[in-house]
Amino acid sequence: MSYIIKLTPAFKDYLWGGHRLRQELRKDCGMGITAESWELSTHPDGLCRIENGAGAGETLAAWLADHPTALGTRAGRRTDAPVLIKFIDAAQNLSVQVHPDDAYARRVEGDAGKTELWYVLDAAEGAEVICGVSAPLTREELAEKAADGSIVSVLNHVPVKRGDALLVRAGTLHGIGAGVLICEIQQASNVTYRVYDYGRVDASGKPRDLHIAKAQDVACLTPAEDAARGTTVRLGFLRGGTGYLLAATEYFTAYRFTVSSVLHFAADPASFHAIVVTGGTCTLMYGMQYLDLARGETAFVPAGLGDYTVRGRCEFLLTHI
Questions:
Q1: Are 254 and 319 within 8 A, CB to CB?
Q2: pLDDT classification of 230: cutoffs 50, 70, 90
Q3: Short-list 283, 240, 266, 284, CA closest to 320
Q4: 233-320 CATH
Q5: pLDDT digits (tens, 9 = 90+) for 244-256
Q6: Is 180 helix (H, G, I), strand (E, B) or coil?
Q7: Is residue 5 over pLDDT 60?
């Protein structure tokens, strides 16, 4: 039976996290620090689960193994989701880091590379992200500046506000700054090479590992004009709301929609739809199914499901491959 699936996330308690996922997005993640909620993930490092319907209680990964066509024809022979979608609460600066591309990640880590899109849900006054270098660096300079902490002075510091979309390609040195709440849409990978961590120590009092040699292998050390911004393009007239294209990459395409009454969609056989509500409330309707979603909740619409509608007053992100 095909239906719209509501997902429950896996949580990560990295030391830079805060409490906003519980306080603002109503995540059932306990009272401690929560850095990330992996909303749609079949990656073994954090498996989301199905909340409703015949698959309730199963991991999405197990359900997709039994229903591989739900990913769509663009997924080829894959039975795991090719994207991973998460919320990130940066109470402190994240490390300066870099992700490899597919070729390097598969050869060295046995995982995918990682290109990602950041959509800013909220940002404190003066908040910023780091994205790319501001001047050319050599491999040796990268290591030297990471060691003495001056690396942050040669990186692009980009002020951000609610509603900004930033595309971060594999190989881009980057970091999310303190006070930023983000929805991240990325390749399904958990490979990160940490370059600089602001001198922090973990719960045992030890500095977290750095990965300088691998970062030297994969980092783009020349400035790129389009290193930080996604392609935000308004779609044509939509009765019942508005829509914007945030990014179209070889790995995923992402949109932001605002619904004032009702919008109509169709999940064709080519790809699933992932819906993440970033503001307000809505009801997803498919046949006799009515699925209520609020800010911070996520749904998976199987490929080939056909026509469905989103009714309410809300903002949401829609991703397909």
A1: yes
A2: low
A3: 266
A4: 2.60.120.10
A5: 999 999 999 999 9
A6: strand
A7: yes
- Indicate the pLDDT class of residue 232, thresholds 50, 70 and 90: confident
In the chain, what is the greatest distance between 2 CA atoms, to the nearest angstrom?
A: 62
Residue with tokens 């303190």: 178
pLDDT at 231: 61
Would you put residue 287 in left (φ > 0), alpha (ψ -120 to 50) or beta? left
194 given a catalytic annotation: yes
User: Do residues 116 and 251 lie in contact, with contact meaning Cβ atoms separated by under 8 Å?
Assistant: no
Continuous segment of H or E residues that includes residue 308: strand 306-320
Choose the catalytic residue: 20, 194, 256, 295.
Answer: 194
Q: 282-289, long-range: CB within 8 Å, 24+ apart, which pairs?
A: 282/310, 282/311, 282/312, 282/313, 282/314, 282/316, 283/310, 283/311, 283/312, 284/4, 284/308, 284/309, 284/310, 285/309, 285/310, 285/311, 286/3, 286/4, 289/3, 289/4
% of the chain surpassing 90 pLDDT: 93
Coil, strand or helix: which one is 235? coil
Question: pTM for the full model?
Answer: 0.96
Is CATH 1.20.1250.20 correct for 5-218?
no
The amino acid sitting at 240 is G
Residue intervals in the chain for CATH 2.60.120.10: 5-218, 233-320
Distance, CA of 38 to CA of 9 (rounded, Å) = 5
- Report the amino acid identity of residue 185: I
Residue 44: CA count within 13 A, CB half-sphere: 4
